[in-house]
Design a protein that fits this description.
The protein is of the alpha/beta class and about 210 residues long. Helices cover about 35% and strands about 30% of the residues. It has 2 domains: about 120 residues, Periplasmic binding protein-like II (D-Maltodextrin-Binding Protein, domain 2), CATH 3.40.190.10; about 80 residues, D-Maltodextrin-Binding Protein, domain 2. β2 and β3 form a beta hairpin. The longest helix is centred in the last third of the chain and has 20 residues. The protein binds 1-O-pyrophosphono-5-O-phosphono-alpha-D-ribofuranose (PRP).
Length: about 210
């Protein structure tokens, strides 16, 4: 019998692109799926259960094995450092992590303040650059920090660049390109390899096809 797969999906921006990708790969996800407020969605015809989590929490569900599979941004993977397999680059939700700030500001502090939702990534980046900084952890609207004097710089996601532009900020350094990844719980990969390999194969064929076109 086919094993049921539980998939942790990130609520928000990535969700729409991830659902579209799964549909293109042939998964029959009903239209109600797109705007449901339910946090657990059982798709009987596919023998799949979807759980809808905050993007930053997806690797936690997968690491603990309550989800077999998850879709998580590389930014989240770098920040969370969870014990999961990253099996496929889904090549959706492309963006990048960057350092940004107000234009033409001279930073005089020994340890300038950097506001970010990504303290681990930011600390590692500045350590590698040999720069001493003070990290201030925020949970969103990071661009606000330099505007009101909470921080000298920010480390945040840039997608279209609109948020930086509309808030008068400029990009200073490019840190790393980001796309969404398919992640798998190691024990699930052993126990449900047929179903998981099938999903990886279907998605890989699709992604390679889209890359070639
Ligand atoms: C993200 C990110 C930037 C913005 C970048 O925030 O943190 O603020 O999107 O996108 P852009 O380059 O297309 O403008 P999000 O909207 O996810 O909300 P948040 O501020 O709560 O993190």
């Amino acid at each position: 019998m086919k094993e049921q797969l539980t998939i942790a999906m990130p609520k928000g921006r990535i969700f729409i692109e991830a659902v579209e990708l799964l549909r293109k790969a042939g998964y029959d996800l009903p239209p109600e799926f797109d705007d449901s407020r339910k946090l657990i969605l059982d798709i009987k015809q596919e023998n799949m259960r979807f759980i809808l989590a905050k993007p930053m929490d997806v690797p936690t569900y997968v690491e603990h094995g309550v989800a077999d599979i998850g879709i998580a941004g590389k930014d989240v993977m770098l920040e969370e450092e969870r014990d999961v397999y990253e099996v496929l680059d889904l090549k959706i939700s492309e963006c990048y992590l960057a350092v940004a700030g107000l234009p033409n500001t001279k930073i005089q502090d020994v340890a300038p303040k950097v506001a970010t939702k990504y303290p681990t990534v930011a600390s590692k980046y500045f350590r590698e650059q040999g720069e001493q900084v003070e990290i201030i952890k925020l949970n969103g609207s990071i661009e606000l920090a330099p505007l009101i004097g909470l921080a000298d710089r920010i480390v945040d996601i840039v997608s279209t660049g609109r948020t930086l532009k509309e808030n008068g900020l400029v990009e200073l350094e490019h840190i790393v390109d980001i796309t969404s990844r398919l992640i798998v719980n190691p024990a699930s990969y052993r126990m449900k390899s047929t179903e998981i390999d099938d999903m990886v194969d279907r998605l890989s064929v699709l992604i390679e096809g889209e890359d070639a076109s």
